[in-house]
Amino acid sequence: LPGNSPYHMAFPGTISLKAETIQAVYFEAAQSLIHHGFRRFIFLNAHGGNAATTRFIVDRINQETPAIAVEMTEAAAPYMRRQPTPGLPPGQFDRHAGFGETSSSL
User: Fold this and answer.
1) Staple partner for 14: which of 8, 50, 53, 69, CB 3.0–4.6 Å?
2) Where are the domains of the chain?
3) What are the CB-based long-range contacts (under 8 Å, 24+) for 46-53?
4) What are 30-33's contacts with CB under 8 Å, separation 24+?
5) Which pTM value belongs to this model?
């Protein structure tokens, strides 16, 4: 699905939506599902640049509807052990297209 990534617009084929558009679409989709009886939602954000947007959607669902929403990474964080990325010195941040992301893709 498209996200908010205006910094990638130099790459042909990139689709970037305003954060307000993404919030409206996801919130209205949740409202439709709530109408049909759904009450629990898990959001998985796979792009760090959209974390605030995802958090806003989750908060809005929790505050404005009878449903419960969580962001999966935040919900699972207390149960995850942080392990260093293989091949990197401890404490070094692994960025896009780094060891971790490349390994996962392969």
Assistant:
1) 8
2) 6-82
3) 47/3, 47/5, 49/3, 49/4, 49/5, 49/7, 50/3, 50/4, 50/5, 50/19, 50/22, 52/19, 53/3, 53/4, 53/19, 53/22, 53/23
4) 30/57, 30/61, 30/65, 30/67, 30/69, 31/65
5) 0.73
